[in-house]
Amino acid sequence: MTHARYALGAPAEPDVKPVPPEVEEVEKEETGSGSDDPWFVVLFNDEVHTFEEVIGQLVKATGCSREKAEDLAWTVHNEGKATVYEGTFEECFDVQSVLKEIQLVTEIQG
Fold first, then answer.
1. Which residue of 23, 47, 85, 87 pairs with 41 in a disulfide if CB–CB is 3.0 to 4.6 A?
2. 56 within a domain of the structure (yes/no)
3. 44 Cβ partners below 8 Å, 6+ apart?
4. Which residues contact residue 75 at a Cβ distance below 8 angstroms, ignoring those fewer than 6 apart?
5. What is the extent of the structural domain holding 86?
6. Are 95 and 56 in contact (CB under 8 A)?
7. What's the structural domain count of the chain?
């Protein structure tokens, strides 16, 4: 039987060098993490909620018309998921929060 030994005391400082600003900017562009990039709320189908519940919550969350909410609900039902909103991350977070009030399954993608 072996026993692990742990050294007590301050951990060794890693040799970290600052990243030049031009490299940081390139990394941001490549990862698409800029604030102007669109974000999306995806709603997934479930076997729990009625069409009326989903439609009502979509209208409440997104401010879309009832007709648009019906179309989105049918897309979710037939395809298993649908993008129901596009906007900034903060807007998508707010929309997702409203959809989650009735435990709808959602995801924010960016």
1. 85
2. yes
3. 76, 80, 81, 104, 105, 106, 107
4. 82
5. 50-110
6. no
7. 1
Q: Would the pLDDT of 81 be above 60?
A: yes
Among residues 88, 86, 83, the alpha carbon closest in space to that of 106 is found at: 83
- pTM score: 0.69
What residues contact residue 35 under an 8 Å CB cut-off, 6+ apart?
88
Pairing state between β 81-87 and 106-109: unpaired
Whether residue 16 is predicted with pLDDT greater than 60 in this model: the reply is no
With respect to residue 36, please indicate whether it lies within any of the assigned structural domains.
Answer: no
The amino acid occupying position 62 is T
The answer to whether the CB of 76 falls within 8 A of the CB of 82 is yes
Check the CA dihedral 73-78-80-81 and report its sign.
Answer: negative
In a domain? residue 69: yes
